[in-house]
Amino acid sequence: MEGSGSGPESPGALGPGGPGLGPLFNVTGLLGNGSLRNDTFQDEALYPVPLHVVLLLTFFYVSISVAAIVGNGLVLWVVATSRRMQSVTNCFIANLALADVIIGLFAIPFQFQAALLQRWNLPEFMCPFCPFVQVVSVNVSVFTLTAIAVDRHRAVLSPLSAPPTKLRAKVIIAIIWLMSLALAAPMSVALGVIYIPDELPPLPPLPADLAATSLPLHPTKAFCTLVGLSMADMMVYRMVLVVVQYLTPLIIITLVYTRMAHRLWGSRAPGNAEDSRDATLLKNKKKVIKMLVIVVALFALCWLPLQTYNFLQNVYPSINRYRYINIIFFCCDWLAMSNSCYNPFIYGIYNEKFQREFRLRLDVCLRRSPAGRGSISRELSNLDSSRWEWPAHNTRTGTLALHRNGDKMAPLGDKHALNGSNSALSVITGHTSLTP
Length: 436
Hints:
By secondary structure, the chain is mainly alpha-helical. 56% of the residues lie in helices and 6% in strands. The protein is built from 12 helices and 8 strands. The protein has helices at residues 51-81, 88-117, 126-157, 166-184, 187-190, 208-211, 231-265, 276-315, 325-338, 343-350, 352-366, 375-386, and strands spanning 13-14, 19-20, 191-197, 220-226, 392-394, 399-401, 403-404, 407-408. Strands 1-2 form a two-stranded antiparallel ribbon. Strands 3-4 form a two-stranded antiparallel sheet. Strands 5-6 form a two-stranded antiparallel sheet.
């Protein structure tokens, strides 16, 4: 066990919901009796991160953490307070936003500080708690993306089938959380805090009256590392996460969206292709599918480097002895964590309904008068009930018309009725009478 290269490595950090080795908490030389040999501790071999790089990394991590919390919090606010936004698909989108908020609160800041400082400075209970929460959140994200893909697949390929209800969507979301918690359960017992002698000169001899006390002769520093599972068990668990949490869902999602693209772009609109209503339905479906494909593609690309790193640790563990592995890890980890802040921008760019709701809340906040804490909620509630009245059926023409702020919109048969931002009938709104 002597020397700089001896001893098995011990994992302590997390990858994309799965634990990683070496670059974060590289505590080596765990002996059979549970003691630690200081001469086998290897973190000094890592590249010492310069101060300007530390400041740059801190800025980047803080930026994505704040953006994830604020942006996804806004998505949750929109879906929770607007009845017309509470469709089945938007229930799943809100669940995805909730998972990203949790990542922004717990996974991004705490893992970064531990990786950067090469010690655990937080309360001990947070050592297993933060990684556990990260695994759960990433599981929820990818399982929710899969559920959205399956739901859209049904709407596109079986448009005449009974649409799923919001109750069914809530049951599916509950199952997603239960599955995610079960898959993350090993992380709740795998990690713990240990203390090893710090690499500082030993303290001078203590006075005789203090020699018998329990004061440590050497300063120690805390590490969040593997204590509850063996190395072999952790390697198996990490591979299970890569397969269940990344590869399998993305294969399913890719196949599902490929079939939908073939149906939407490879065939004409159902019924009379010259009918503006059918053309609008097809256009709206394509627009939503494009938006969801972008969400999934960003997820896959952002997590790919970190998932690759996790996989390589199993087949080539010595990569953690590379001097600059900590810098490589920071780049991979930041890219993966940044995925939690992109979705609100995608919704705002590609979906008119979210655009309108975001603008509405921004306008209300900017012109809010100090009338009390509940004024924003009351104003949004009033707008939600007044902007759209109940549909009116035109008995003479047999068409359905909408009334917006007292102004009658064109009937559904009018080719201009559903164009632009006035469309209240896109897939995301949940008006399943026209679009699934």
